[in-house]
């Protein structure tokens, strides 16, 4: 009985988190994962009853795998909470700011924090050039890069220090098209990637696959409430980066 109560409580927490992030952000793979997990936790007794003894063994295996994934999630969250800015202060750098969702022509909270991190770095390194990258996503009225450039200019960064890449639809394309733009303009290939800490590993893997050797990171401050959702999505993004290279 006690186990059932714990499962139901955990299930309710997962469902509440999934619903909250769907309302405040959007329906994504990360919150869909928590929605599914919460439903399974609450319905465990019913699932056991329907599946019988063989089904119970499968369910126990699923819970073991889920436990391992939760431990990995916690480690990602701890790492994200304790990761500090680690970027070259060399003036000969090119900053690449990876795009994220926009809402009604304005940066989402995730994107605004990336832009703020990029602006802080650019102000400390006045010789660097900033590439903002992101195409027009589903349900968006503008290319992400346009909104990103506008935000940086409105917050004091000189227009002539910003290059805009407006075709990319995913992280791999962000870096691929930014590298092309960088080389067309004879910019330094000492690259500083600005994104959330949970996203940096995948970004660096993709950058190295493209032949970028000098990579530094500036991490934006991810809202704590969004770290679980985006970290889950990033697990599968890493697999995609390693297998499909995008």
UniProtKB/TrEMBL annotation:
The chain crosses the membrane at residues 5-23, 59-78. Keywords: Membrane, Transmembrane, Transmembrane helix. CDD domains: YdcF-like (cd06259). Residues 94-237 form the DUF218 domain. The keyword Protein transport does not apply. GO terms for biological process: Gram-negative-bacterium-type cell wall biogenesis; peptidoglycan metabolic process. InterPro entries: Cell_Envelope_Assoc (IPR051599), DUF218 (IPR003848), Rossmann-like_a/b/a_fold (IPR014729). GO terms for cellular component: plasma membrane. It holds the Pfam family DUF218. The keyword Repeat does not apply. This is YdcF family protein. It comes from Holdemania filiformis.
């Amino acid at each position: 009985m006690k186990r059932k109560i714990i499962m139901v409580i955990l299930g309710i927490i997962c469902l509440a988190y999934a619903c909250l992030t769907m309302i405040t952000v959007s329906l994504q793979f990360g919150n869909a994962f928590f929605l599914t997990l919460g439903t399974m936790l609450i319905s465990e007794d019913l699932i056991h009853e329907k599946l019988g003894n063989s089904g119970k063994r499968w369910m126990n295996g699923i819970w073991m795998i889920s436990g391992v994934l939760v431990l990995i999630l916690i480690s990602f969250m701890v790492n994200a909470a304790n990761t500090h800015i680690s970027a070259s202060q060399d003036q000969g750098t090119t900053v690449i700011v990876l795009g994220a969702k926009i809402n009604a022509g304005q940066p989402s909270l995730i994107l605004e924090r990336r832009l703020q991190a990029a602006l802080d770095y650019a102000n400390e390194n006045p010789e660097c050039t900033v590439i903002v990258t992101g195409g027009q996503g589903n349900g968006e009225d503008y290319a992400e890069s346009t909104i990103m450039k506008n935000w940086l200019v409105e917050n004091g960064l000189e227009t002539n220090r910003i290059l805009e890449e407006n075709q990319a639809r995913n992280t791999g394309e962000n870096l691929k098209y930014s590298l092309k733009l960088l080389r067309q303009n004879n910019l330094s290939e000492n690259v500083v990637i600005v994104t959330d800490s949970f996203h940096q590993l995948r970004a660096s893997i993709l950058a190295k696959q493209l032949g970028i050797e000098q990579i530094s990171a500036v991490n934006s401050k991810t809202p704590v409430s969004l770290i679980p959702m985006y970290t889950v999505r990033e697990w599968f993004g890493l697999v995609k980066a390693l297998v499909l290279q995008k």
